[in-house]
Every structure is written in C-alpha cells, then in structure tokens.
C-alpha cells in the first residue's frame, strides 16, 4: 500500500493529574493551571484530571470532603464563595483555555458521601464492627447525627433536592453522646448497607467509607446525582470523569450513570475509576461487569514499582507481573504516583526517587496502558515535607519522548534481571522510533536491534544522561552502556 493510502498513526495520548494534596491554599489553582496549559500541551499532555471542583466542607478542603455537588465556586457557603482551587468563573476560564489549546479536562467526581451537614437529625442506628461492617456491636438506638443538608447559600438554584437522614446508609458521629463509631442507619424500610456484590466485599461490606454515606437504593439520591451529571455536562466543557472511591458505592448506579451520560450527554467521554486494591482478580471482574466502558488505575503496578524501589537489585523483568496493564491493557491507566500515594500520605505505596525515571519510562514509552503523570512529580510537592520535581527535572523530556518517538512495533529485551530494555521501531509516518535501557544496579551493557530502516543513523540520549551515543550498524544493531538510570535514545 502506498504511503499516501495508509492511515496516519494516531498520536500517543498522555493524561496528567493536575494537582497534589499540598497545593497552596491560596484559591488560585485554576489560574495556575490556565497559565500552564500551553506549556503542558507542548510537552505532550493531552488531558488533565483536575481536582474535585465542588464545594467542600471548608475553604481549605481538597474536595473529597464534599458538601454540595452543584456549587462549583459560585455560592457563599461553608466560609467562602470559591473552593480551595478558585471560583466558578476561574474554572470556566481554565476549561475555555484548555479547549482553545486542545487539552481535555477530566472532572473528579466524589459521589460516595457528603460532609459538613447544615443541621443535625435524629434517626435510629446501630454500631458495627470497624473491621466487619456486617457484624453489629450494639442494639439499635437513636442517635443525633449531622445528616441534614439544606444548602442555604445556593437555595434551590440548579437543584431543589435537600438531603435528610433517610438519604444515607451510615455516618461516623453521634452528637448525642459525642461518640465516634461506624453507625449503620436503620429506618422504616429494610435499609442497611448496599447489597453484597454491589460494593466491594472488603471489611465484610465496604459501603461505608467516611462522612455521611449516600444511599443509592434511595430513588431521590439516584435521580439527583443523575441530574447533576446532566447539568455538569452542559455547565463545563469536559472530556471525561474520574470517579473517586468506586469500591464504596453502588456499582449498579455507576453503570447506569455512565451509560446515561455516554448515550445522552457526554458522548465519547473517558471514564476512569479509583478502585485502589491490590487484588487483580477483583479489578478485572469489576471491568467485566462494567462492560469495558470503563478504565481503572493500575494500583498493582504502583505496588510493584514501590517494592522494587525498596529492594536492592530487584528483578526488573517481573515489573509487569500481576498488573492490570498486563491483562487489561486497553482499560488500564498506568501511573507512578498520585495524591494518595505521595510521601507521607501512603508510605506503603511510595516509590524511592532513584526509581522514578525507570517507572515513568515503563509507563510512558511502551505500547500498552494509558499513562498518567503526577503534578507533584512534574512541579514538586509543597507542604510540611516538600519534595523537588522527580526524575531530576527530566519528566517533561520523557512525556515529549512519548509524543514524538514511542511508536510502532515493540521488541522487548528483558534478558537480564537488573538491566532491561525495549525498542519501538517507528511507523511509516512516525519513523523515528526509540530505544529504552533501564538499570537498577549500576552500569551495564545492552545490545538491541532497532530495525534495518535505521541502519547508519546516530542516536543520542534524549535525557542527556547517557555516556555514549549509539551508532547503528548496517543491520540496525545498536550498543550502549547505561549508568544506572533510564536512557532513552532517538535519532541524533
């Protein structure tokens, strides 16, 4: 087939989590992102997962302590008009700029619970075991709980729905006796937790996570949240949604929600869920039940990265063992770090700095998975324990290398435990290709064949870390020495 008749090779797509937990509480993050979008697009970022933009319990709340779905920084509620990130008008300016430069916006939807109720309500409840929510540890009794949501600052704009005790399955505080526990809310109908199988089975039934837990068996809850999705799709220019804490709320409802959006309001949107668990079987079954219209973050891969970064001379050949990207490559969002795994948030999943370049090369320069880079790795982390940008500041070069060079047939050279590599041979219209060599145990050697079409070329390390250039012989065979980091080579 003539080149003119061949279909163009689709560009590699890269997403970015566009915040970290300790972003300054100055209410200017929407403005920061708007200013950074052209630069992010230039280094290869195509879509941004922005933080939860709905009103939180306080002006400093990151949004996972969600108060009002329908307040995007528009109403004077919970101590401010804007959210931690900024006002609704500043959010609009961000999304308009993103559309102008061709960057998609993914919304962070927190649908599991509500926080910071406006008043207390009495209801019957029963205490349950922290580690087995199916096991009760008290008789039913009346509690006085923060479960009344009136949204006085918003009134009935955008939605007239108010929330009361009977819209929730559980809470964690009884104001009657100032006791903190997990309370399963009871009522006239059979209430309790979500049905077995509709939420994750960890801790017996993982319906309850935090705050006031929404009851998706209640028709008013389902209707109001579905209406919010419809409203949001018209209110903000989006390309998709990241769903928080999907282990903890109704799978049946979420399937209905995304099907409704996909068919009527957000056609072509990308949907990804936070199902943070190291059970690959549970993740795969979830994707099957969702009809593969959905993606999940590859938590098992993050745990592999973490363990290897803390193990001397770890076997790099096993890095993809028992990972989501290995068995569901189309539905896996690969990542190195996020706001839940950054240092001092979740040390069991943290990754040592020396391993970050290897991990990012493994998600950005291969032919499977949809990679997501982290704001804290690109710009550094603030807060009490600040960290500088990772990869020695070379993460932009890695994302750009993905955009420019990581195309075509892939050949793996996973033939030595502490020094692995692979080549991408390029395509008819993206012909450059690349070669990647990783070592976690000092200098090593690697011979790799990049294809006869590259014979006679000179390649160099795009990161500027390599000690030698590759000079390719008549058969496209290259030779390199690596110095214990990731070396990514391209045509000089």
What is the assembly state of the chains in this entry?
single chain
- The CATH topology assignment of the largest domain is TIM Barrel
Strand content: 15-25%
Work out the helicity level.
10-25%
CATH architecture of the largest domain: Alpha-Beta Barrel
Note the total helix count.
Answer: 10
Terminal-residue CA separation: 29 Å
Q: Supply the helix-strand structural class.
A: alpha/beta
What is the residue-mean pLDDT, rounded to a whole number? 91
Using DSSP, what is the number of strands? 24
As a whole number of angstroms, the C-alpha radius of gyration is 25 Å
Shape: globular
Q: Main sheet, how many strands, which sense, barrel?
A: 8 strands, parallel, barrel
Topology:
Elements: E1 15-17, H1 29-42, E2 47-49, E3 55-56, E4 66-68, H2 88-101, E5 104-109, E6 113-114, E7 119-128, E8 141-148, E9 168-174, E10 179-185, E11 212-214, H3 219-235, E12 240-243, H4 251-265, E13 270-273, H5 280-289, E14 295-297, H6 299-309, H7 324-327, E15 332-335, H8 356-364, E16 370-374, H9 375-379, H10 395-405, E17 410-413, E18 419-424, E19 434-439, E20 444-449, E21 458-461, E22 470-471, E23 477-482, E24 486-491
Q: How is this structure best described in words?
A:
Belongs to the glycosyl hydrolase 13 family. GO terms for molecular function: calcium ion binding; hydrolase activity, hydrolyzing O-glycosyl compounds. By secondary structure, the protein is α/β, with parallel strands linked by helices. The chain has 3 domains: 10-111 and 220-405, Glycosidases (TIM Barrel, Alpha-Beta Barrel); 114-217, Beta Barrel (Elongation Factor Tu (Ef-tu), domain 3); 410-491, Sandwich (Immunoglobulin-like). It has 10 helices and 24 strands. The strands form 5 sheets. The chain has an 8-stranded parallel beta barrel. Strands 6-11-9-10-7-8 form a 6-stranded antiparallel sheet, with no helix packed on it. A 6-stranded antiparallel sheet has the order 17-18-19-24-21-22.
């Amino acid at each position: 087939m003539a080149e003119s008749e061949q279909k163009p090779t689709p560009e590699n797509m890269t997403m970015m989590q566009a915040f970290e937990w300790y972003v300054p509480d100055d209410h200017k993050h929407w403005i920061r992102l708007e200013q950074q979008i052209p630069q992010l697009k230039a280094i290869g970022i195509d879509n941004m997962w922005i933080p939860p933009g709905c009103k939180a319990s306080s002006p400093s709340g990151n949004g996972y302590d969600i108060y009002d779905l329908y307040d995007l920084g528009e109403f004077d509620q919970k101590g401010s008009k804007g959210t931690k990130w900024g006002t609704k008008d500043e959010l609009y300016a961000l999304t308009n700029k993103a559309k102008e430069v061709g960057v998609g916006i993914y919304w962070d939807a927190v649908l599991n619970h509500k926080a910071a109720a406006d008043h207390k309500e009495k209801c019957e409840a029963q205490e349950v075991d922290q580690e087995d929510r199916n096991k009760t540890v008290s008789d039913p009794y009346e509690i006085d709980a923060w479960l009344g949501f009136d949204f006085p600052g918003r009134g009935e704009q955008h939605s007239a729905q108010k929330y009361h005790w009977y819209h929730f399955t559980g809470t964690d505080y009884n104001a009657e006796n100032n006791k903190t526990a997990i309370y399963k809310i009871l009522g006239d109908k059979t209430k309790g937790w979500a049905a077995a199988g509709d939420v994750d089975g960890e801790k017996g039934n993982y319906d309850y996570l935090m705050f006031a837990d929404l009851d998706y068996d209640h028709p008013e809850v389902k209707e109001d949240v579905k209406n919010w999705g419809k409203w949001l799709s018209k209110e903000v220019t989006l390309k998709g949604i990241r769903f928080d804490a999907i282990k903890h709320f109704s799978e049946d409802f979420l399937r209905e929600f995304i099907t409704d959006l996909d068919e009527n309001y957000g056609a072509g949107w990308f949907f990804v869920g936070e199902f943070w668990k190291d059970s690959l079987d549970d993740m795969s079954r979830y994707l099957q039940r969702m009809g593969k219209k959905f993606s999940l973050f590859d938590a098992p891969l993050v745990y592999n990265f973490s363990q290897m970064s803390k193990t001397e001379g770890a076997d790099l050949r096993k890095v993809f063992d028992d990972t989501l990207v290995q068995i569901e490559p189309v539905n896996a969002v690969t990542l190195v770090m996020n706001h839940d795994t950054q240092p001092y948030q979740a040390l069991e999943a943290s990754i040592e700095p020396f391993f970050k370049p290897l991990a990012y090369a493994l998600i950005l320069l291969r032919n499977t998975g949809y990679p997501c880079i982290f704001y804290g790795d690109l710009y550094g982390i603030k807060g009490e324990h600040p960290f500088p940008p990772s990869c020695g500041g070379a993460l932009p070069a890695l994302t750009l290398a993905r955009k420019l060079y990581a195309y075509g047939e892939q050949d793996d050279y996973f033939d030595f435990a502490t020094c692995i590599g692979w080549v991408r041979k390029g395509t008819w219209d993206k012909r450059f290709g690349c070669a990647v060599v990783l070592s976690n145990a000092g200098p090593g050697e690697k011979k790799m064949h990049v294809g006869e079409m590259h014979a006679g070329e000179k390649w160099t390390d795009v990161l500027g870390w390599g000690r030698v250039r590759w000079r390719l012989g008549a058969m496209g065979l290259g030779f390199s020495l690596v110095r214990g980091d990731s070396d990514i080579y391209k045509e000089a």
